[in-house]
Amino acid sequence: MARREELPYLSQSGILLLLILGVLTPVGLMSAAGVVAIVLGGDIGSLVVGILVVSFALATLGAGTALLVMFQRRTRLAREQVTFLTNVTHELRTPLSAIRLYGQTLQLERAGDAETRRQCVEAILRETARLGQLVDRVLEWRRIAEGRRTYQKQRARVEEALDEALTNFQGLLAAGEVELHQDRSSTREVYLDRGALAEAILNLLVNAHKYTGETKRITLRSRDVEGGVEIAVEDNGVGIPRAEQQRIFEPFHRGGDRLDFQAAGVGIGLAIVRDVVRGHHGRIRVDSEPGRGSTFTLFLPAAPPAGSGGKS
Fold first, then answer.
1. Within 13 Å, how many C-alpha atoms sit on residue 3's CB side?
2. Which helix (H) or strand (E) holds 256?
């Protein structure tokens, strides 16, 4: 799939710096040259004219570049909004279609036996849970984007948050859909927001599910390491090229082999995970190769020894 090259993205502070260096500085040089010309007279006229010409050219170039960058930034934001709305619409349509299909099956009494009716009800509940998870993800991202996301952390082990994430994840799956393994040995306490950490792990599990083929193998690990606790989600999916491994944490970014895989998604799950990890003063890394799966590893710092008075 052909990919469109974009200009480097600049924040508001970056655009301001560009304006200062590309526009205000040359204008200041022109003003200084004019003052020098007035004070010293015509003896250095050619030098002043040269400074004015060069400064005017720099100011024009700087202004044009600043306008181009600002236009590109607005275009990118508009494109991201359209992509986001398109992805959300697609994500909503799939479970809603399934709910309607199973609901009509029950309504028209096409499910003739108790087992078929039970399967229809389970499918409706599963797709409803998927809708709820999508809505929660969108609302969570809105709070993050508006700077309103806060974390209520308490001293605890990570295992309860992992249990909550697994329970919610299994509620999204049909029986036998995923070969799920666990290798959990962490006993160390950290300061954590249980709900937020569970949501982050759930996003990683859902992400692993999306980017694996028909045979889905996912492993959830936890262990104590020097200075803290590591949590890892490993899959046997399509993998991620090295060039994409930093950008995948940007909101709405889906590229490379993962985009070609045509997996559904809104594009905010990994951005939410990164924000949760940062809110816990932790780190996240990805180890992956195309065709060999991916492992996302979270590191959370250990809580100070009891009685030391320290708190994250």
1. 10
2. helix 256-260
Contact 300, 280 (CB under 8 A): yes
Token pair listed for 300: 């959370």
3-state secondary structure 102-158: HHHHHHCCCCCCHHHHHHHHHHHHHHHHHHHHHHHHHHHHHHHHCCCCCCCCEEEEC
**Per-residue confidence (pLDDT) for residue 127, from 0 to 100:** 82
Q: What is the DSSP string of 49-79?
A: HHHHHHHHHHHHHHHHHHHHHHHHHHHHHHH
Backbone angles phi, psi at 207, to 5 degrees: -65, -45
Q: Which residues, in sequence order, are CB contacts of 25 under 8 Å at separation 6+? A: 58, 62
Tokens of 108: 């028209």
Q: Are 238 and 66 in contact (CB under 8 A)?
A: no
Rounded distance, CA 209 to CA 214, Å?
A: 10
Residue 260, Cβ density class (10 Å: 0-12 exposed, 13-18 middle, ≥19 buried): exposed
Choose among 70, 86, 33: nearest CA to 252: 86
Residue type, 152: Q
Q: Supply 149's token pair.
A: 């996301």
**Cα separation, 124 vs 183, whole angstroms:** 31
Q: Which residue has the tokens 């997996």?
A: 263
Give CA–CA dist 312/307, Å, rounded: 14
The β-bridge partners of 235 are: 218
**CB count, 10 Å around CB of 219?**
17
The total of other beta-carbon atoms located within 10 Å of residue 182's CB is 11
| Digit-coded pLDDT (tens) for 158-182 | 999 999 999 989 988 888 889 999 9
Q: What is the pLDDT of residues 94-134, one digit of tens each?
A: 777 878 887 888 777 777 788 888 888 888 888 888 788 77
| Cut 0.70: pTM above it | no
Residue 23, H or E segment: none
